Amino acid sequence: MIVGVPIEIKNNENRVAITPAGVVELVKNNHVVLIQKGAGENSGFTDDEFVSAGAKILPTIEEIYASAEMIVKVKEPIAEEYGLIRKGQLVFTYFHFASSEPLTHAMLKSEAICLAYETVESADRSLPLLIPMSEVAGRMAIQEGAKYLEKPLKGKGVLLGGVPGVPPGKVLVLGGGIVGTQAAKMAAGLGAKVVIMDISLPRLRVLNDIMPANVVTILSNEYNIKNAIKTADLIVGAVLIPGAKAPNLITRDMLKLMRPGTVVVDVAVDQGGCIETCKPTTHEDPIFIIDDVVHYCVANMPGAVPYTSTLALTNATLPYVLQLANKGWKNACAENAALKRGLNVIAGKVVYQGVADAWNLPMSKIEDFFN
Ligand SMILES: NC(=O)c1ccc[n+]([C@@H]2O[C@H](COP(=O)([O-])OP(=O)(O)OC[C@H]3O[C@@H](n4cnc5c(N)ncnc54)[C@H](O)[C@@H]3O)[C@@H](O)[C@H]2O)c1
Question: What is its EC number (predicted)?
């Protein structure tokens, strides 16, 4: 199969969908890999490295889309790319169709096959192509939070680890899933006093078993949250209710309970945030202050660390890319139920219920495409 990897042209997106290691695997399986010139630069991979791995470099995005049978990307196509996608072409990337009606209509019109990273779903209902980015964001939440706790960056002026004779800072993590677990581990590693709250007792039991002694688990409820925010230096929002807006666990009124210079990093901002006053920010202008509380609400945190994020993402995507290239999308999806759940749009038809519901579109039977 001819696999094409364009440059990501969405604002501030520095990742690339394949690494030289991935190219080696594809070429070993007799596939042709076309990489747009400079596509790997912001993630630390040169064109020469891709060529040494066996890829061909093409100068323009138009040539990549025109030649490839499968396009592998990171972010959803943006308006400039809509017209480049061809009938019958397989596009494997994050789409997030439910948040963009124009994208949904453009992909329907293209008659391409759209396989979305975010809905590839394993039998245990986990989302293998979302987990790596949650791991990055969770770990980064502490790095960013620690930074904005510094006085010149508007924080309280607290060093999370403390020093001999001075107690460490206090970190409250709301939600003990992937993001929350990684955040708690990083904060604990710095020596902070960490509290993780979750509504799931089974999850708290697991966390209690695996976390070091400076991490305490507490059931998430309004009473416990109100108490904890009075003394927390850094609060990480990491809750998720699948398919729904994140609940407002910290309301505007509750900000007054916090001490000036407290930092909140609301990682859940992409689902509306779990702190009422959070609204999405960007890496250019990541924070704002309300009632003396520093809010960090960047919606694409992994974009700031493309070296790490590209490797983390491609470690997870490559096995699926190989299956798709080796077998074609139909056979690969027929043999792998997790991959089949990634199919959102096939040849002008919506085949994923969430997308049909989001834009009130007719839902087609996926099985019709497999007979
Ligand atoms: N901003 C970014 O760049 C970025 C990057 C990756 C992920 N995220 C987002 O981070 C959020 C968390 O993702 P995840 O992968 O950790 O999800 P997850 O499903 O692994 O974990 C969510 C946890 O929240 C808990 N929860 C639900 N309601 C709660 C409540 N009221 N109080 C406390 N805990 C509650 C759940 O029990 C679960 O353990 C998602 O919204 C995700 O989209 C954002």
Answer: 1.4.1.1
